[in-house]
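Schema walk-through. Below, the input block comes first and the output block second. Nothing else is stored per chain. Lengths vary across the set, and this one has 273 residues.
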Amino acid sequence: MKNRYKISELAKIFNISRQTLIFYHKKNILIPSIVDKNNGYRYYSSEQIWELFFIITLKKAGLSLEEIKKFTEIKSPIENIKFLENKVEEIDNKISEFLKIKENITRKINILKKSSVDLENKIYSGENKRIRGYFISMVNEKDEAEMAMNYEKLHSIAKKKGIRDIKYITITNIREQEKDKIIPVKKIGIVIPEKIKMDKIEEIVLEKYFYIKYNDTYINLQDNYKELKKYIESKGYISNDYGIEIAEDYSLVTEKGFAGIFEILVGIKKRIE
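--- output ---
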């Protein structure tokens, strides 16, 4: 190994410009081991190759030049360790934050992919549906501001409990819905996984029910409820007084307005005699 390297040689090794090394010199971040007094040429020792390697590593890790300069000025090994440990902790926090951002973006991509599928609003039947949730009752069943506020509360609760894939449950008042364009909402909740323990958990059990996989704007929601109730009656059943919507965490913006991807479930009481 050579004992010393010209500035152009060092720049070539790390694929950086001579100006970068001159700037590091002026900022006292990496001072050449020798500066020729006659011609001003800068020479770097073989040890300084590793110094520069670490400086570039710190720069890639997001440290500012001021932080790097501060590190190079620390002469105590203990202080050096403490400085780097703090930076490792900051990097870990950033990694965790970026992973959460990636997860949210990936979930959004999956929702958008689902939204591009035409579900045809086909009606299905099911049995023994068990929904485990935490609910907030509505004071005013048609107050959209109250609904939005309750959704925010539930979102915060889900995050605190570590629920990643949040699914909202909306219990609607079927008996009253046809009197107004706004579908009355009795209470709003979130699905609680079995492994999570909470106070005031409620369980809804539907022994037999019919449902629609909904993928449309909220404007058309009323029509789907009417279609579902009409279908239930055509099969000779009486529907429950409430409907259940189980929705994904995201709403979508379309040309027709806000849209959602969720299931509309309506349980049945008995056959019409």
